[in-house]
C-alpha cells in the first residue's frame, strides 16, 4: 500500500523465536519458488530502482534487519510473504526483481515484483511513478527470459508451474481514486468501480496463468478504515472509519465469489482467497490477544501520517515496536506481518494441499 491483509485441518506449529518464521519450517519445500505482485505490503525494494518518492530505503525502516539496513521494505523487518516463504521452506527473504545484482539462485527460488503505491488501476500510479500491477505482470515476462537463460526452458516451466504466487493490491486504488479524489467513484459509482477492479484482477491472473503460473494466493482488502493514515485524514481520531471498512467487506465478498469462477476457466489452476481483513480487524479489536498495545497509529513519528518519505531518518520511533500493529501510518510492523503470516498459514496455504500432504510433510 502507499498511503499504501477456523482452523483449516490442523494448526501448524507456531514458533516463539522472534527472528524465525511463524511456523516450523519443513524439511523440504512445498513450492520450488515464490512470486509476489502488488503494493507496499509486499514490496521488498523494487521502488529503490524507480523514479518515485515512495521509498523505504532509509532509516528508521529496516531496523530489525541484519545491520539495521533499510532495504526498501515498508516495515521494521520482514514482510508476511517472507514468513510464509520461510515456513514452507522456500527461503527467508524475497529479493526485488529490479535489483540488477540478482543471482541465479535468487531467480530460481522466486522474486518480488510488487511496487509500493501500486494498484490494479493504472490511474493510481499516474503521479507517483510506482509500477501498477499490469506493469509488474510485464516484468514477469522479462523474469522468464532471464530464468530461461540461466536454467533452461524445461527447468523454467517446472519451477513456474509449481510455484506459489501471492497478490496483494487494491487499497491504493480506493484511497487514491475514491477516498482522496473520488474520480472513479464519480464516473462508475463505488460498486461499479469495485467490479472494474475485479475485472482487472481476473486479467492479471489470466495473464500470469498464460505465462505458466498455476497456484495463486489472492488477497482481498484490509480494513482500510483502520489504517492510521485514513483515521487521521478522516478525523477519526482513535476510531476506525467504519464506512470504509464496510466498503472493504463488500469488495472482499465479491472477490470471494469471483475467484472460483476464474479457477474454473483455467485448467490446472488453484486460486485461493487470502483473507487479510479478518486478522487485521481482529488485532484492532482484541490487541491484548496478540501482545499488542497500540493499533491506531504507527510506530514511526507521530504514527498518524508518516509513511515513505514522511517516515524519515530522524523521525522518533516508539520504544516497543513489537507491541504496535503498524510500523508507519499505512503498513504493518514486522510483528503485524508475522501475525498475518500465521493466519494465512493456518487458513489459506493449506488449501493448496490435501490433508494427507499436510500430515506427512509438516508433522
List the helices and strands and how they pair.
Layout: E1 34-38, H1 80-87, H2 104-109, H3 133-151, H4 153-161, E2 164-168, H5 171-180, H6 183-188, H7 190-210, E3 215-219, H8 228-233, H9 242-265, E4 270-274, H10 277-285, E5 294-298, E6 324-326, H11 334-347, H12 355-362
Parallel strand pairs: 1-2, 2-3, 3-4, 5-6
Helix pairs in contact: 1-11, 3-4, 7-9
Characterize the structure shown.
- The chain has 363 residues and is of the alpha/beta class.
- It has one domain (34-351): Rossmann fold.
- The chain is 39% helix and 8% strand.
- It contains twelve helices and six strands.
- The protein has a four-stranded parallel β-sheet, covered by helices on one side. A two-stranded parallel sheet has the order 5-6.
- Helix 1 packs across helix 11 (334-347), helix 3 packs across helix 4 (153-161) and helix 7 runs parallel beside helix 9.
- The two termini are 35 Å apart.
Amino acid at each position: 500500500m502507499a498511503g499504501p491483509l477456523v482452523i483449516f485441518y490442523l494448526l501448524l506449529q507456531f514458533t516463539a523465536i522472534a527472528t524465525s518464521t511463524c511456523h516450523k519450517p519443513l524439511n523440504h519445500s512445498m513450492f520450488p519458488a515464490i512470486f509476489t505482485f502488488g503494493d507496499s505490503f509486499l514490496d521488498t525494494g523494487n521502488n529503490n530502482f524507480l523514479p518515485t518518492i515512495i521509498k523505504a530505503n532509509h532509516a528508521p525502516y529496516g531496523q530489525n534487519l541484519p545491520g539495521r539496513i533499510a532495504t526498501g521494505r515498508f516495515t521494521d523487518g520482514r514482510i508476511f510473504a517472507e514468513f510464509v516463504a520461510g515456513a514452507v521452506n522456500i527461503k527467508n527473504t524475497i529479493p526485488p526483481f529490479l535489483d540488477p545484482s540478482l543471482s541465479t539462485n535468487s531467480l530460481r527460488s522466486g522474486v518480488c515484483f510488487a511496487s509500493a503505491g501500486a494498484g490494479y488501476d493504472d490511474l493510481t500510479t499516474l503521479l507517483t511513478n510506482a509500477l501498477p500491477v499490469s506493469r509488474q505482470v510485464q516484468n514477469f515476462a522479462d523474469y522468464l527470459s532471464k530464468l530461461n537463460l540461466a536454467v533452461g526452458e524445461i527447468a523454467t516451466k517446472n519451477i513456474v508451474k509449481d510455484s506459489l504466487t501471492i497478490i496483494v493490491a487494491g487499497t491504493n486504488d480506493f484511497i487514491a481514486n475514491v477516498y482522496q479524489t473520488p474520480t472513479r467513484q464519480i464516473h462508475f459509482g463505488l460498486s461499479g468501480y469495485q467490479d472494474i477492479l475485479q475485472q482487472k484482477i481476473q486479467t492479471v491472473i489470466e495473464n500470469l496463468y498464460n505465462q505458466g503460473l498455476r497456484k495463486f494466493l489472492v488477497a482481498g482488502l484490509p480494513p482500510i478504515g483502520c489504517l492510521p493514515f485514513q483515521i487521521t485524514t478522516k478525523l477519526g481520531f482513535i476510531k476506525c472509519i467504519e464506512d470504509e471498512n464496510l466498503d472493504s467487506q463488500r469488495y472482499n465478498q465479491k472477490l470471494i465469489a469471483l475467484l472460483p469462477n476464474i479457477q474454473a476457466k483455467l485448467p490446472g489452476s488453484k486460486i485461493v482467497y487470502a483473507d487479510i481483513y479478518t486478522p487485521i480487524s481482529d488485532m484492532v479489536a482484541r490487541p491484548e490477544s496478540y501482545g499488542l498495545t497500540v493499533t491506531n497509529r504507527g510506530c514511526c513519528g507521530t504514527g498518524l501520517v508518516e509513511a515513505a518519505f514522511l517516515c524519515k531518518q530522524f523521525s522518533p520511533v516508539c520504544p516497543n515496536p513489537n507491541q504496535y500493529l503498524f510500523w508507519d501510518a499505512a503498513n504493518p510492523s514486522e510483528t503485524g506481518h508475522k501475525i498475518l503470516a500465521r493466519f494465512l498459514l493456518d487458513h489459506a496455504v493449506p488449501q493448496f494441499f490435501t490433508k494427507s500432504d499436510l500430515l506427512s510433510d509438516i508433522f
